[in-house]
Amino acid sequence: SAVISQKPSRDICQRGTSLTIQCQVDSQVTMMFWYRQQPGQSLTLIATANQGSEATYESGFVIDKFPISRPNLTFSTLTVSNMSPEDSSIYLCSVEDQHFNYGYTFGSGTRLTVV
Amino acid sequence: AQKITQTQPGMFVQEKEAVTLDCTYDTSDQSYGLFWYKQPSSGEMIFLIYQGSYDEQNATEGRYSLNFQKARKSANLVISASQLGDSAMYFCAMREPDQGAQKLVFGQGTRLTINP
What we know:
The complex is a heterodimer. In chain A, strands 2, 4, 5, 6, 9, 10 and 11 form a seven-stranded mixed beta sheet that branches. In chain A, a hairpin with a 5-residue loop joins strand 4 and strand 5. In chain A, 0% of the residues lie in helices and 51% in strands. Chain A is mainly β. By secondary structure, chain B is mostly beta strands. Helix content of chain B is 0%, strand content 54%. Chain B is built from no helices and twelve strands. Chain B has strands at 4-5, 10-14, 19-21, 24-25, 33-39, 46-52, 60-61, 64-69, 74-79, 88-98, 101-106, 110-115. The radius of gyration of chain B is 14 Å and the shape is globular. The A-B interface holds A 31, 33, 37, 41-45, 48, 50, 56, 90, 92, 94, 96, 101-106, 108-109, 111 and B 33, 35, 37, 42-45, 47, 50, 91, 95, 99, 101-109.
């Protein structure tokens, strides 16, 4: 299966600042997905990022708050903007993995704490 | 509407016992896929097992098996001979098409604790 390098693994940030999370895949993939997992909760899809087009955001998530870049088929970033304590979550990227029979590989996650 | 339902917030099992984690789903599609993931305290998502909607046999992967009952729309995970390292959150997920993208929708999860 594809291998995803997600950075940073964790961070503590001041409210009002922004953090950019990176995901690098070791092979070309069409779709990348960004998830948020709030403390004690399940994974919620933020957006789907297809190379060369604007990301598609799920209900409740907006581009101004979570801008996403997808400059090529192996890389994507998610920015969490103007952070508040409510943004404290684990953020995970995932890819639809053509090399993996069952379809999906996840990054190791970014554990974000906003103080 | 909730598409994946996991009704067991927490499960406590003695080591070496078998455990069943429940999952029911809701979809009108004929083609879909069902997944189980394990999430240890480190936060990574570990793929366990997959069942396609057209698969006639229940999926198995080592100590993991999936009890797929299509008519009842259930896809329960069975872990045989549980180990201390099985303590983690377990998520059931369904893949379904949505405007060209194959998205995963997750249930709320079950926290499994294995007691020595």
